């Protein structure tokens, strides 16, 4: 069985690289760290991973992205994969979007950009503890 996957979704490559660096430093090789630059790519990555019998256990998604916004992405993911822990990372999400993600996607947490690494890791650890 392969390692569990943490998926990061953000339209800024620098943010994805930063997240993966922080996650790898904190959790080492306990997880596979995947990235996607938009919602469509994220949905494709999740589908491909499940086809390969790998499982996404946590997703960190930006809110403001081209095409589908983060709350809509997390709601879609929740409908098909309700056990994935969902965290939003954003500088621009509005309260309506956050409320919708909490109610319809079981959003675990929301962090503002720029984030503190300690806050990010604590939110991830608390989410993973629910598995």
Please, could you describe this protein's structure?
This protein has 131 residues and is an alpha/beta fold. The chain has a single domain (5-128), classed as Rossmann fold (3-Layer(aba) Sandwich), CATH 3.40.50. It has helices at 13-27, 39-51, 70-80, 95-105, 117-128, and strands at residues 5-9, 32-36, 56-61, 85-90, 109-112. It has a five-stranded parallel beta sheet, sandwiched between helices. Strand 4, helix 4 (95-105) and strand 5 form a beta-alpha-beta unit. Helix 3 (70-80) runs parallel beside helix 4. 34% of the residues are buried.
Give the strand order, joined by hyphens, for the main sheet: 2-1-3-4-5
CATH secondary-structure class: Alpha Beta
Shape: globular
| Poorly predicted runs of 5 or more residues | none
CATH architectural name: 3-Layer(aba) Sandwich
Radius of gyration: 13 Å
The structural domain count equals 1
